[in-house]
TrEMBL record:
<dbReference type="InterPro" id="IPR039060">
    <property type="entry name" value="Antitox_HigA"/>
</dbReference>
<dbReference type="InterPro" id="IPR001387">
    <property type="entry name" value="Cro/C1-type_HTH"/>
</dbReference>
<protein>
    <recommendedName>
        <fullName>HTH cro/C1-type domain-containing protein</fullName>
    </recommendedName>
</protein>
<dbReference type="InterPro" id="IPR010982">
    <property type="entry name" value="Lambda_DNA-bd_dom_sf"/>
</dbReference>
<feature type="domain" description="HTH cro/C1-type">
    <location>
        <begin position="98"/>
        <end position="131"/>
    </location>
</feature>
Amino acid sequence: MRIISRKTLVAFLEQHPNYNIAIKSEAGYDAALEQIAVLMDARAGTPEADALDVLATLVENYENQHYPIGLPDPISGIRFRMEQQELSQGDLIPFIGSRSKVSEVLSGKRSLSLQMIRNLHQGLGISAEVLLQESGAGNGR
C-alpha cells in the first residue's frame, strides 16, 4: 500500500471539496479510473499530480480489497521462475535432486521436501510462502 502525505491529502480535498474520499462502489472505482486517465500527464509538484497520487492510492486500496491476487501454487511458481531465467528441467537438479525427481515434482507426482524448498528459495529466490503451500492451493489473497 502506498502512503501519501497529509499535505497531499489536504491539498486534494481543498481542491475537490465534494469528492468522496473513499471508493465504495464499482461506479466510484470506474469514476476514479477515468479521473486518473485525465490526470496521468500531470507534472510533479502540481495540484493535479497531488490529485493523481491520492486517486491512485484510493484505487490501489479498492483493488486490494475487491480484486485480491492470490499466490501461485508451488509448481506454477517454479515454472514461472524457470521461464524468467530461461532454465530447463536439468537446471533444477542442483535444487531438487535427480532428473527423475525434477520431472516428478513438476508433474505433481512428488511433493516438495523441506530441503527442496530451502534450495529453491535460496538458489532461485522463489518465495518460501509460495513453495510451502500445498500444490493447487492458491490462497486467494
